[in-house]
Amino acid sequence: MGTDGRGGAPWQALARPGFLRGGLPWRAAGYLLASGTAGLLLCAGLLLAGTVAGALAVLLVGLPLLLGLGLVGVPFAAWERRLVRLLDGAPVPGPHQVPARPGLPAWLRLRYRERATWRELGFAALAAFVLWPIDLTVAGCAIAVPGYLLAALPLLLLDGEQVNVLKLWQVHSPYVAAALGVAGVLAAALLAYPLTAVAAGRAALVRAVLAPGGQEARIGELVRSRARLVDAFEAERRRIERDLHDGAQQRLVALAMTLGLARLDAPPGSPLADRLAQAHREAGDVLAELRELINGIHPQVLTDRGLPDACADAADRSPVPVDVTFALPGRLPAAVESAGWFAVTEALANVAKHSGARSARVDGRYADGLLTVEVSDDGRGGADPAGGTGLTGLADRVSVVDGTLTVSSPPGGPTLLRVEIPCTPIGPRAEDLTRTSGLTPTPGGPHTPDRP
C-alpha cells in the first residue's frame, strides 16, 4: 500500500525506488526510539520492583509483588503490539482468551495458566535487558550522525571560529563544514536502510513471539465459532417454536372449533355425530401433543419471564412433587437460560422415569459470576451416564456454554445433579427474581398452559 510500506512488509519497501521519499524511515526511527525508551523504563522498574520484593520477601510481604511480576509482560506486550502498528500499520492480534467468569480472580487464574503469558514475560525480560540498548543505539546513530554533520555549517557560522563535529575533530573552514553537510545528507540516506532493517526485524520478532500461535488461533476461532453456533441454534429454536405456535397450532385450533360447530348441526345419536365427535377428540389430542412439542422446543415462559418461572412450569408438569427455589440477580443470557432450563427438564424427566423418587427439589443461585442449578431427589440412586439416562447428552449441552455437569448418585440414593455455568446478568427484571414454590402434580396429569 504505497511506497512507504504501510500495511505491508517493510522488507519489501526497502527494495522500492521511492523508499527514501516515503515516511517509513521516519516511522522506523520513531518506532525504535519508542520501543527503546519503553524497554529502558521497564528495565528500571523491574530492577526496583525486584529489589523491593526480594527485601520484603523475608517478611512474606514481598511475595504478592513477586507474583505480580509474573504478569508484567501482559501490559508490556499489549503496548508492543500497539506500537508495531506505527511501523507497518498492520494490527497484531492478542493471544489471550476471555475469562469464562467475570472478576479479577478468574482473570488471574486464566492468565497464569496461559502459555502466552509466559511468552510475554520472556519478551519483556528480553526487551528490558537486551533490546533497548540496541534500539536506542541504532536510532541514535541514524539520527545523531547525520544531524551533527548537517549542523556543522550553521554552528560554524554562529560561532565564527570553529565547530566540533561529533566531538572528534575541529572544523574551521566553511567549505569543509559545507562538505560535511553534504556528507550528512548522504549519511542520512544510507543509514535509513539499516535503520529500517533493524526496525523491521524487531517488529518481526514482536509478531513471532507476541501474536497468537497456530494452536491458540485455532482455539480462539473454535471458541468464537461455538458462540456463533449457540446463538444461531437458539435463534432457530425460537423461530421453530414461533412458527409452530402461530401457524400449525392456530390452524388446529380453528379445525377443532369447526368440528365442534359441525357436531352441533349433526343429528344427535347419528353415525355422523359419532364420527364428528371422534374427529373432535382426535383434533384435541393432536393439539395437546403439539403444545407439548412447542413447549419442549423453547417455552415461551422462558423468553418472557426467565429461568425461575420456566423451571417452575417444568416442575408443575412433573408427575413427581417438586420444590423450586431460585435466587438470581437478574435475567441471564438467552443461551445460559436455555441450557439451565434444559438441564432441569432433563433431570426431572430422569427423576420421573428412573429414580422411583417420592419428591424432588430444584435449587438455583448466582454468585461470583457462576450460575449453579441443583436438582436432587430421594430416589434409589445409581444414575449412570452410560445407562442411557440422557446425562451424556445433557453434559454435552451444558458444555456448549462452558458449563460443567456433576452427578452424585450412590446406590440407594439420594441423587444430586449440579450444573454450573459461568455468565454475567444482562439486566434486572421488573419483578424480584427470588422465587420459592412448592409444587405438586395436578390431578389427572400435568397441565400444559398455552401462551397468550
From TrEMBL:
In residue numbers, the region (Disordered) covers 426-452
User: Which residue intervals define the domain Putative sensor in the entry?
Assistant: 31-210
An example Gene Ontology molecular-function term: kinase activity
Task: Give me the segments passing through the membrane.
Answer: 28-49, 55-79, 121-153, 173-193
State whether keyword Phosphoprotein applies.
yes
What catalytic activity does the UniProt entry give for this protein? ATP + protein L-histidine = ADP + protein N-phospho-L-histidine
Query: Cross-referenced InterPro entries, in alphabetical order?
Result: HATPase_C_sf, Put_sensor_dom, Sensor_HK_TwoCompSys, Sig_transdc_His_kin_sub3_dim/P
Report the top EC class in one word.
Answer: transferase
According to the UniProt entry, which residue ranges have a biased composition of type Low complexity? 435-452
Q: Which UniProt keywords apply?
A: ATP-binding, Kinase, Membrane, Nucleotide-binding, Phosphoprotein, Transferase, Transmembrane, Transmembrane helix, Two-component regulatory system
Q: What top-level branch of life does the organism fall under?
A: Bacteria
Entry EC no(s): 2.7.13.3
Q: Which residues form the Signal transduction histidine kinase subgroup 3 dimerisation and phosphoacceptor domain?
A: 236-302
In terms of PANTHER family, this protein maps to: NITRATE/NITRITE SENSOR PROTEIN NARX-RELATED (PTHR24421), NITRATE_NITRITE SENSOR PROTEIN NARQ (PTHR24421:SF10)
Which named protein is this?
histidine kinase
Organism equals Kitasatospora arboriphila
